[in-house]
Amino acid sequence: MSRPVYYDETSVPQDAQRYLKAREFLEKLRKHQRELDAQTYKTLRGQALNGDIQGAEKGLERILRREW
Fold first, then answer.
1. Tens digits of per-residue pLDDT, 14-34?
2. Domain ranges, residue 49
3. Is 23 domain-assigned?
4. Tally of CA atoms within 13 A in the half-sphere of 42 that contains its CB
5. pTM assigned to the model
């Protein structure tokens, strides 16, 4: 069994940083899931999972800014 690896914030590998940012965004997206239609939710989720977290965040902000 392998031991867990601990990093300080300055030495976290790039892959781990992307994973953590994606995970953080997906938690944020889940909080707003009821405000989004299914297709928009799936699109933003897929965008984040494919690595375009900035684009997904921008899209979510734009959608939440809309007034219905």
1. 888 888 899 999 999 999 999
2. 12-65
3. yes
4. 3
5. 0.75
